[in-house]
Design brief:
By secondary structure, this protein is an alpha/beta fold. It has 22 helices and 20 strands. It is globular, with a radius of gyration of 28 Å.
């Protein structure tokens, strides 16, 4: 690096530098000490993402080779979560070929080489800030040209702050809007907007304003509200009416809308912070279930946790942080274990044990479920081969498959290759699917299921009894095993209707050659009734929780269970 006198321009902004070597960070900070940049540093990608949660970073300078999460993964995440940010790679020449895909995709703006020239580096950073502001301006101009209400909305928010009045800012989003527009045509939004403006006029205080400058998303400003309780009640009413089936709508009888809201100045004392906190309320996974969510500081903490989980998945796969546990399925007539279900577990190096539903749901949102699924299949078949050698009496072990994996033929090829690699009989493998797999693309799912069936593996329908499937619907599928959902099992002792339904389901399944597993069994009374109805297998804490492989093997040696 040169020690020449640095030429500093007036360009300013927030710069984040990420490198796992402390000496490099120190050198870069010294290089930039006389510049007008506000410099933040992080020694890992995870720390960098946490800083970006707290500060409006405009330019990122990142190393390429870093542990846990690489620079490539880090920059790809930035592109997804912060599309306006300018990211640059600062690394050795040897990393250039690996970084080409980042440059080609537009995720990385430039590749800068170590060792660096101080003056040239500062000039590159200045140009990155120029690019950031140009990109932001271009986007805003385009939005203004195509959506005349864009600047009117910004001005209305600024006016409210200038008047120093309390107000509520609401964002209403139509979920799956792109799908609706594709099937119902571009005029669908005009009709929905008219309907929403009518509801706003009828349900909200006089003077409430509605703005629409982003297809599928609408903003509402509510002035002079009485209380937050009133706001929640009226917004809930609007959401309820929107989500009700409406035959008067052209092209879409049923929609799914969600709302987030923030109160000014409590949730933000300027337009920028208020909008950022409103986006935070929407970015948290829980809003979809509640349909209405207000920003609070706990949401930011939850958002940071969810982002950390998402960003840790690649590293967890690479470092084998995921574990496989085995929950036995006990054959009711003789209390023998001849099958089991493999369940994935994750002990995060910072967050500890993460509930499977949490990381699986998050991975489904951003597509990482496919990587987890591939790892799960490969490791499961390996462990099943080991168990088969340990206990040849073990007849079948179940592996859960996601809807995304059933979307193409590659899952069939993976099973075919692994069965050949380990010399396993296909009958040892059972594939568990849920109803969500069926409703996304029934024809494609059916095709892949038959291909798997032709390999010789068994197919199980998980969580039956709480979703969309009817028994007649299931008759079209190559199902070998039906698993009764825990919700049904929980009510079996106290509800005659559930008892009759379960008894009838078991009888019909047996007539079709389908075995029945009751999952979530925890009580002796449940076991006795299921025995009476001739249920084939029991799975649940009454017998055993999911266990690490060594403990499961010990359980196989302690049979049969005594009821």
């Amino acid at each position: 690096m040169n020690s020449q006198q640095l030429q500093v321009t007036s360009t300013t902004g927030k710069l984040l530098i990420v490198d796992d070597e402390p000496n490099i960070l120190s050198s870069l900070k010294r290089c930039l000490i006389k510049t007008p940049f506000e410099v933040f540093t992080a020694n890992s990608a995870q720390e960098g993402l946490a800083i970006m949660q707290e500060h409006s970073i405009q330019v990122v300078l990142s190393d390429f080779r870093m542990p846990i999460m690489s620079g490539a993964e880090f920059i790809e995440q930035i592109k997804t979560s912060y599309p306006d940010v300018i990211s640059m790679v600062l690394s050795g020449y040897a990393d250039f070929d690996s970084a080409i895909s980042l440059l080609n995709s537009g995720a990385a703006h430039k590749f800068l080489r170590k060792p660096w020239n101080n003056q040239q580096l500062i000039e590159e950073i200045e140009q990155a800030f120029v690019e950031y502001h140009a990109r932001l301006l271009n986007r805003r101009v385009l939005e203004g040209e195509h959506n005349p209400e864009y600047y009117a909305f910004e001005q209305a928010v600024r006016d409210r702050f200038a008047e120093q009045q309390e107000f509520c800012l609401v964002s209403l989003k139509i979920k799956d809007y792109d799908f609706l527009e594709q099937h119902a045509g571009p005029t669908i939004f005009t009709g929905l907007l008219t309907e929403i403006r009518g509801l706003v006029h009828n349900e909200l205080p006089q003077g409430s304003q509605t703005f629409a400058f982003d297809s599928g998303k609408i903003f509402i400003i509510i002035p002079d509200y009485e209380s937050e309780t009133m706001i929640r009640k009226r917004l809930t009413t609007i959401n309820h009416k929107l989500n009700e089936p409406n035959t008067q709508r052209k092209g879409c009888v049923k929609i799914n809308s969600v709302m987030g809201y923030a109160l000014a100045p409590t949730d933000g004392d300027d337009p920028s912070s208020l909008m950022e906190n409103l986006r935070c309320a929407f970015s948290v996974d829980s809003v979809a279930a509640e349909h209405l969510c207000r920003f609070d500081s706990a949401l930011r903490d939850l958002q940071q946790r969810q982002l950390k989980i998402k960003n840790s998945i690649n590293g967890a796969l690479r470092d084998n942080q995921f574990l496989l546990h085995f929950q036995p399925k006990v054959r009711l007539p003789d209390q023998q274990i001849d099958s089991a279900e493999i369940l994935i577990r994750w002990q995060h190096n910072e967050l500890g044990w993460i509930p499977p539903n949490e990381f699986i749901n998050l991975s489904e949102l951003d597509g990482q479920i496919e990587q987890i699924g591939e790892w799960l299949i490969a490791q499961s078949v390996k462990k099943i081969a080991e168990l088969h050698r340990f206990s040849p009496d073990l007849k079948r072990v179940a592996i859960n498959i996601s809807a995304r994996q059933l979307a193409n033929h590659s899952v069939v090829e993976q099973f075919e290759s692994l069965l050949d690699q380990y010399g396993l009989p296909p009958s040892l493998i059972e594939i568990e699917i849920t109803e969500s797999c069926l409703i996304q693309d029934f024809e494609q799912t059916l095709k892949v299921l038959w291909e798997l069936k032709e390999l010789g593996v068994s197919i199980a329908m998980d969580d039956f009894g709480t979703g969309y499937s009817s028994f007649a619907y299931l008759a079209k599928l190559p199902i070998d095993v039906l698993k009764l959902d825990k919700v049904l099992v929980d009510g079996i002792e106290d509800c005659k209707e559930i008892q009759s339904m379960i008894a009838g389901l078991i009888t019909m399944c047996h007539e079709l050659g389908i075995s029945v597993v009751a999952e979530g069994v925890e009580l002796a009374g449940q076991v006795e009734l299921l025995k009476q109805y001739k249920c084939d297998y029991i799975q649940g804490y009454y017998f055993s929780k999911a266990l690490p492989k060594p403990e499961f093997e010990m359980l196989l040696l302690q049979q049969p269970f005594m009821i």
